Amino acid sequence: MSKKDYKSRNSKLRERRQGSSTYTFDSATGAAPIFESYEKRARSESLRYALGAMQEVDQLYTQVSIKTGERVKNQLVTGLERRGEAADIRFQGSLPLNIHIRRYSDVDLLVLPGSFLIYDCIGPLATTYRPSPLDRVDVVKKLRSDCYDVLSNAFREVDVDNSGAKCIAMSGGSLARKVDVVPALWYDTIEYQRTRAVEDRRVEVLDLPRGTLDGNYPFKYMARVDKKDHDTMGGVKKAIRLLKTLKYDAETPVDLSSFDIASIVWNMPDVSLRYPVYLETAIIVGALNFLSLLVADRVYAESLFVADGTRKIIRSNKDFEGLKALRDELVDLTESIASELKPYDYDAVQNSKRILLESQIH
Predict the structure, then answer these.
(1) Which of 149, 186, 236, 335 could pair with 117 as two cysteines, CB 3.0-4.6 Å apart?
(2) 60-216 architecture in CATH?
């Protein structure tokens, strides 16, 4: 028997996706639908939970998040221009990738100065850049200070919190969503100078307390996840949403970030994720098989890189324990779905993977 209460989890899932169990109201969208399409595809609590966890959040709610981000972005552009500063402001993270799992999804905005960047001095276009005597850390510190001043003046009823290590956090007041504003610099790598593709352009984020810059490739990450999702007919993002939901609802803490979870799925074989809508339960089996492989072979698990290639996914015992906890969540979900689909099959748990692989859910 399953140890998880999927009826309770369905209530939590619905609350995250829609709001109250009867109806919800958003000033920008009006009343939400009482039932989503996935809820009509299954009577089993565990199957309904799995199907719902894989689906994207309704676009009405996603658009509210995007519009909120655009509103903050426009105020930043205008306010910085008044100070004689140009800025390149872009969305990053789960929202633009459409792998968020809550209707009230937070918004991440990168803010990069338009007149200052870092470049690799041995790149093929290095001679086309003009060197600057300015200190790179000081440039981002000033940008952050200016962003804080602009936002504090533009959003007087909003809580604009400048105490975070890497971002200015905005919430409440007239904002329908939380917004994190992340000051950073472009780093034009050798590869970017060769390809001019944004995914090859590194971003250096200011860590304010340490006074250092931390590099990553947010647009490479997004491009790689998008490509693999296309190659798997949407299977990648369904699996990412499922695993993020399991982490969110797990009784045992799953100490893996959303970025780590997405990167685990990105490392999965395409064949484990490429299924039509009516065979979505097979994606659960694909994810379970891959996580079981990683748990059984720690050396292999520790060899896998995150999707932007900047570091390993599993770097500590805590990470590995998180991986095991996530695998255990998938085991319970798989066995519960099989038992509910085949209530009179005494071997349903033993044959759970086969049952999910063969089940057609219309």
Answers:
(1) 186
(2) 2-Layer Sandwich (3.30)
